Every structure is written in C-alpha cells, then in structure tokens.
Amino acid sequence: MCARQEIVVIALGGTILGRGKRGCEGYVSGAMGVESLTKELCVMLGLKRAELEQRLGAKITLLSLASIDSAEIDSRILLELARAVQKALQNKRVCGVVVLQGTDTLEESSFFLHLLSTSKKPIIFSAAMRPNSALGSDGVRNFYHALILATCPKSAKNGVLIVLNDLILSARDVIKSHTLAVNAFERGYIGYMLEHTPQFLYKLRQIHTYKTPFSLEQLCAPLPKVAILYGYQGDCVGDFAKVLKREYKGVVYAGLGAGNCSARALQTLSDLSEKIPVVISSRIQQGAVSGAVARRFITAGNISAPKARILLQLALAHNFTHKEIAQIFRQI
After folding, report:
1. Domain-located, residue 88
2. Which of 65, 206, 236, 314 would you label with 23, given CA atoms 20 to 30 Å apart?
3. Tens digits of per-residue pLDDT, 142-160?
4. Does 212 belong to an annotated binding site?
5. Mean pLDDT along residues 276-289
6. Is 15 a catalytic residue?
7. What's the domain count of the chain?
C-alpha cells in the first residue's frame, strides 16, 4: 500500500479513452473521458469508487489535459504535460502519476518525461490497442495496472514506466512493433503483472529522471527543430541539405544496419555536421549503432531515431556543446 494519499491521473486522449458505435467502427480517440474509464473499471471490479481507492490505498484524482489522437502531440503539449506531472509530484500527498494517451507516439512522450522529470516517484504511462467499445478491449485492464504500479514502492527510482498487456516496460527502450496487435510493444521489458501484482526483474542503469541533466524551467515551446532522415538504397539525403542547414538545428539519421550509409549520404552528413549536430541511429529495432561511419558523428547507441530526436532537441534547448551532447548520448 502506498504511504501517501493520492494518485493523479492525467489524460491526453487516445484509444484507451476511445469509443465507437459498434466495436472499432468509427471510434474516436479520447471520446469517452477519463471519468467514464474509471467508472468502467469500478463496474468490472464490482467496486464503488471509494472501495477502489481503499484497495489501492490512495485517492484517485483525474485531470484531463487533452482529448486528442497521439499523432497531434507536439512539443507544446509535451511541455504542458511535463509541467502538470511536475506540479502533481511536488505535492507530498501524491505517491505517483498515471498518464493515459494513444499508442502511436507513446514511446516518445514517455521518453520525454523519462529525460525531464526530476522526481523519484513513479510515473506510469498506459494506453490501449482496442477502444472500450471493441470486443476484447484492453484499456480498462491496462488502466488498473497503471494505478497499481503508481502506488508500488518498487516503481520508484526506476524512470518512467509503461504498463501494457501485463508487461512492465522502460520508457528508454520500449518500441511499438505492431500496428494492431494487443502485444504491440516490445523491448524495455523489466517486469510483469502477476494476478494484478507487479513483479520487477530488472533495474535501469542509465541516467534518467531524478539524475537528468535537463531542466524543465529552461524550456519553452517550440523546441529546436530536429529532422529525422531515413536510410535506404539510393536515398536522396543530399536533396534536403540546403533546407536542413537553413531551417533545422539538428539531424538524426536512421542508418542502415549498425548505422551504415552510402558514400553519397556520408558526404552530405559530413557537410551537415560542420553546421549542425548529426546523430546516427539505426532503422533496425534491435542492437546498437557502431562502426566506422557512426563514429564520425554523435552515436545514438541503441536508442531509436524518434527518441534520439527528442534527446537532441532537449540538449540543443539547453545550449550544450557538441562534445557535451555526445557525452549525454553515451550516458542516457
């Protein structure tokens, strides 16, 4: 049981709060509201709201920040979310925060808070692959597990966590790997839920949350523009060089294999790196960046390209030097 008195649930929308007329047909993200989701959870458990809170050992406070598809989340909304989470966790009564949003960009939002929150308290993201009107919907169960994790002392000091499909995942490594399946998320596996009880297997070693080098107070929207370029046979990276130099503050290149690229792309990236930071990641979901090409630039390690973009944006917003940015990428 949580020693403190309150869980703050912050809703951004998404399928977990979606509902359609029949099943998945015509469902709208965020249509039902977090209050309705909480009521459905109580119905499924056969509990009144007060009884659910008694079981959790904490009062549930609901906050609706937005009701949108996660594709609409930008740096302004992310900063608004980060400030709402920070404000909630500064309250001594609050033992943890739950964030509900769509799955399509969940890995980016959770990583953003993983880098920016300075609290040791649990921050738990959850979502759903099927709306609540669908047969076999997963949202209510995922929400219940998120509430449980937010009250669990073992969730603390573990960075931002995601709970989906009975799995506990780290925001640093999690990736959505399937468009529709309930088990759409993989990597970053650090535990699981067993009969609604968290079972932790691993601790994250990299720098995060309360050891972060970043400060929310120094940030304002929009964050510096960082582009992601995708490597492929005969890619046309050079066609965008002038635009990138003129309008962007940094580039992430999702390279082939372990960060490889063609000779033509290498020349373009080398030219760009004289003006703006260039980070090499991989278009492959497993493994780390390495090799002669990658070592010419800042390497993303095993962080995905979308997450490398967020990390570079935050580093640029803090005016870190090229050397400092490279060091941060090695530590995160």
Report:
1. yes
2. 65
3. 999 999 999 999 999 999 9
4. no
5. 95
6. yes
7. 2
- Kindly report the CATH number assigned to the domain that includes residue 48: 3.40.50.1170
Contact between 268 and 247 under an 8 Å Cβ cutoff? The reply is: no
Q: Per-residue pLDDT for 300 more than 90?
A: yes
Q: Give the CATH number of the domain where residue 230 resides.
A: 3.40.50.40
Annotated binding residue 103: yes
Q: Which one from 15, 38, 105, 268 is the annotated catalytic residue?
A: 15
Residues 298 and 199 in one domain: no
pLDDT for residue 20: 76
Strand ranges (E), the chain? 6-13, 59-68, 94-100, 123-126, 161-164, 167-170, 175-176, 185-186, 189-194, 197-200, 226-230, 250-255, 278-282, 298-299
Residue 70 counted as an annotated binding residue: yes
Whether the per-residue pLDDT at 38 is higher than 60: the answer is yes
Domain carrying residue 235? 224-331
> How high is the pLDDT of residue 107?
97
216 domain residue, yes or no:
no
| Per-residue model confidence as pLDDT tens digits over 2-13 | 445 899 999 999
* Nearest to 120, CA basis, from 96, 104, 87: 96
